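Subject — a protein and its fold

Tokens — whole-number codes for backbone shape
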Amino acid sequence: MFFVFVVFLFYGSFADDAFIVARYAENLVHGAGLVFNQGDAVNALTSPLHAFFMAGLAWLAGGSVRTYVLLAAVAVFGVAGWAAYRMFAFSPEKARLYQFLLLTFPPVAFWTLGGLETPILLVLILLICACAAQDSNVRGDMGILVLCALAGFTRYDMVLLLGPLVCTVLWRRKGNVRVWGVAIFLATLFALWFAWCYWYYGDLLPTSFYNKNISKSSAAALGKGLFYEFSLVVLLLLPLALALLLGRQKVAENEPSRAEPSRFHALIAGLLLYGAYGLFAGTVHMMYLYRLFVPIIPVLLWAALRYLPVAPKPLGYGLMGLVQLTLVYGIDQHSLNFNLALLIPGGQDWYEFSRAGAGPSNKQANKVFAQQAQAIERHWQTQGQDAALVPRMAVWTEGQPGYQLRNFYVYGPLVSYRHECRADYFKMAHYVQDIQYLADGAAPPQAKNAQGWELVTYDDMPIREWGGERKLIRVLWFFKQPELAHTLPARVHGACR
């Protein structure tokens, strides 16, 4: 019931990047290729499997982000229950506890509904843990390799978490033709995918890799990464441990674990590698509310409960539920990136969406972007332009406006990225999006801005900052004649034309 309640509460809090994937999927289904802007081969996809799943959903049922997240919620709920009883077949009490802890963990519920690849990864990691918990056999090991490959195809950084497990399986089956045959086949598929990416896009990796580029991280970024992971442990895991202990009851301590130690230890090694990577990658754009770490929660909980000699009484479950409800309230009403830095003067600016983003404002933003797209479409139709002219817009939020206005060319840091061409998107666009952070009660905008651009539409979204101060986020759209022609090169490595 808790999971259903949180799903109802968080539904509609879609990440903007979800609509980037949705537009790629729609273009693929309609024959334009796996692209965001038609005729523009730029790879802004961080999850190939997610994109193909969305394309299949669009082809079969005219699917949307809303349909996807509802299916994701059902899948996570169902697989979590099945996997828990596979991992803890020797202890139904621990299986129930595992399922409770996973499904009431606020970031798990939130990112199941975020519209991104996170629930796919959750399902795959749960299946991998369930397989790793069983007695070793050839068929099971082949299944682990396939699941690991799917996880890697969902997000490339899964190689850090699952690489040690893959190596362990291959080492233990070094003389088995079937297992190694599956491994070689999967490796060949990956090689073909990357070869196709290089041929089609001109890049092996998505544009977010170059935009976020964690290799340039500083000591300050490392410090913030350490504090962010510490915050995750304190805010989200320690209270659960305390509540569990306060409501404890003894369980049998001689319950055998069926998991092979080597496979379990390989997952723990992967967990450590992934945690080190998360020090730099866990705080970059679109990783708020611990999104990078959500797929490793099944492994963390398995490690925590594997040798736990206690299980909660009803009082323990009640205390844990109360802790989780408190965290859900904090996320929904105060900060979409709930973390300990909020308690430090100036710390609300350390991480994305810490200061003012909360559940209601996030849902409102999705509605505003969709409504504004309709206003822009109507405005363009009144301009009397040649039907062959492709309208162009420069945006900060590439997903929702781009998804709603699929006949527009979108300029943005991800979807129109070029390595050697840092063109001024605003000078090439007909429509320009501006997002302002203002005091509550700010005067409405003028019909034209300082550059003489015509105001098409705007919306104010009232927000309440951490600490109670009221502000507003103003999203404006301006129309103008482009000062420059479209000068971006046809290929991602080309120079400005």
Remarks:
- Strands lie at 248-250, 310-312, 392-394, 409-411, 431-439, 454-464, 470-479.
- The chain has a mean pLDDT of 89.
